[in-house]
Structure formats: C-alpha cells, structure tokens
Amino acid sequence: MPHVVIIGRPNVGKSTLFNRLVGKKLALVDDQPGVTRDRRFGDAELLGLAFTIVDTAGWEDDDPSSLPGRMRAQTEAALEGATVALFVIDARAGLTPLDEEIGRHLHESSVPVVLLANKAEGRAGDSGLFESYALGFGDPIAFSAEHGEGLADLFQALLPLI
Ligand code: GDP
Ligand code: MG
C-alpha cells in the first residue's frame, strides 16, 4: 500500500487532514499544538484511491525555539517509507520560517511533495496561498481539512504519484 505522509509545522491542521482522509477520529485533534504524540497510521480512501495515511508529530512536544536545528532529522524520520509527502501549511497564517525550513529539507529528499495550503476556506487564505509558491513545490492545493474543501484537487495531485 502506498504511504502518504503528512508533514508540517505544529497547528497547521495535519491531524484534522488525517481524520478527514480516514473518516474516523483516529488521531487526536486539539486547539493546542503538541497534542499528537506519535506517528499514526490510518487506512485512507479518497474518491476511490486507497493508501495508508501517516500523521506525524515528531517535533510537536519540543520548545519551538530549538526546532530549526533538529528539523532536518525530524523530516528525514517522517519521510522513512513515504511514497508521497503531503506538505501542509496554514494559508491563514502565511509562510513562517519553520515552513521554509521544512521546505528546504523536503527539497533535499527524493520523495515527491504535494503542497497543501490548509485553512483556505473563504478568502482568508488567499495571501498565504500565493506566498506558498515561494516554497518551490509548484501549485499549492487550496484546501480546508475542517470543511472538506479541495479533496478533488488532492485526488488529482496524488493520482500520478501513488
Ligand atoms: P496539527 O498540529 O498540524 O495536527 O493541527 P490540528 O489538526 O491539531 O489542527 C490545529 C487547529 O487548526 C485546530 O484548532 C483545528 O480545528 C484547526 N484547523 C484544522 N484544519 C482547519 C481548516 O481547514 N480550517 C480552519 N479554519 N481551521 C482548521
Ligand atoms: Mg497533530
């Protein structure tokens, strides 16, 4: 089964996306960053496409000021066994230095990356969506994990990769 691994800084909506794709509340979601403790695996189904979805949270327990130094190792660990990386950013927050750091490490890996601009419901995510082109992963998918928007675009992006 292909493994689609969700990667992104804390609080961008990774676990909400995981739950959306699994359709069950397997991953804990909370308003506070740092709730998910481990990698979680779920059987995902997206418009007939079946894959294993992996929610990552390796760096969420830690002091954010010490994150950048360990980001490369964390990203590499998360990418182990990955068929595709789903790189999630928060379109409402715009790009942050941590997003850029994760993006640099993803560029060093050979795993294909699909960029997902989450929290893009309404128009509140428009500027973050445009900013995210600077990450160099092509067109971002405007997405809302909470509202289930962008699922067909995600399907289109994953189809040739898995
Ligand atoms: P994680 O730390 O990346 O796993 O993020 P979570 O999935 O725990 O979500 C963090 C916060 O963002 C929670 O309050 C979610 O309800 C919220 N969130 C997740 N997806 C969306 C979305 O599509 N739109 C909005 N507005 N909020 C979202
Ligand atoms: Mg989480």
Instruction: Give the CATH topology.
Output: Rossmann fold
User: Biggest β-sheet, characterized?
Assistant: 6 strands, mixed
* Average pLDDT metric: 87
- For this structure, what is the CATH homologous superfamily? P-loop containing nucleotide triphosphate hydrolases
Strand content: 15-25%
The overall strand count is 6
Distance between the termini: 9 Å
Give the strand order of the largest sheet, numbering strands 1, 2, ... along the chain. 2-3-1-4-5-6
- Low-confidence residue ranges: none
What is the share of helical residues?
A: 25-40%
Continuous helix count = 5
- How much is the radius of gyration in Å? 14 Å
Task: Please give the CATH class.
Answer: Alpha Beta
What would you call the shape? globular
Oligomer: single chain
What string, H for helix and E for strand, traces the elements in order? EHEEHEHEHEH
Decide which structural class fits the backbone.
alpha/beta
Number of domains: 1
Tell me which CATH architecture applies here: 3-Layer(aba) Sandwich
